[in-house]
Write a structure and sequence with these properties.
The protein is mainly α. It is built from 8 helices and no strands. Helix content is 75%, strand content 0%. The protein starts with a helix and ends in a 27-residue tail after the last helix.
Length: 197
């Protein structure tokens, strides 16, 4: 085969209905457009470098640009029809759930439980304050005297509660009996002075 034949074979066949002159004209226009694209890419690259230099001189970072791009992208997402439809659907579901009888009953029950818990804690706080007030009504002379405090009704009541809680936590021993000493000692006799209290 001759070199001219290979050149013709290497070229793409002309589109139907085009003359050789029209084909040559289109190829020349294609080469010109491709050359313009290369030139525009070079101009764009030069403009981007210049833009980067200006931002650097102004103290703007790439992070600022990224932040702006993300903000714009999020704004675009929020304006999209898919986001709008999803948001609308979630709003409908939320309304259905909050209007359902089960939700209302659960909300009411939790509200009542919160009110009862608040009232119980308030009662406990008042009782503790009252007990501490009873203990503080003793004179300084009585406060210094530990046996006098141990014999007070408040202190014995507190010891009884602590003893009851301790016996519930510790429970009976292996033989089935609780050999713990009485929290208030024996009878009305005061505890010895070497007691931890």
């Amino acid at each position: 085969m001759d070199p001219a034949g290979q050149g013709v074979a290497a070229r793409a066949p002309a589109a139907e209905g085009l003359t050789e002159a029209e084909e040559e004209e289109l190829r020349a226009e294609l080469a010109k457009v491709e050359e313009e694209i290369v030139t525009l890419r070079q101009v764009l690259a030069a403009k981007e470098r210049h833009c980067g230099e200006l931002k650097r001189k102004l103290g703007l970072s790439a992070l600022d640009g990224l932040r702006q791009n993300l903000s714009k992208s999020w704004h675009d997402v929020q304006g999209s029809s898919a986001y709008m439809k999803t948001s609308e659907k979630l709003g409908e579901w939320n309304e259905k759930v909050t209007q359902s009888d089960l939700y209302k009953k659960t909300q009411e029950t939790l509200s009542q439980a919160g009110q009862k818990t608040s009232a119980a804690l308030s009662t406990v706080g008042s009782a503790i304050s009252r007990k501490l007030g009873d203990m503080s009504s003793y004179s300084i002379r009585h406060s210094i005297s530990m046996p006098a405090m141990r014999n007070s009704a408040t202190f014995k009541s507190l010891e009884d509660h602590v003893g009851t809680i301790k016996s519930k936590v510790v429970g009976g021993r292996e033989n089935g009996s609780d050999n713990l000493p009485s929290p208030t000692g024996s009878g009305d006799k005061p505890l010895p002075d070497h007691a931890p209290f």
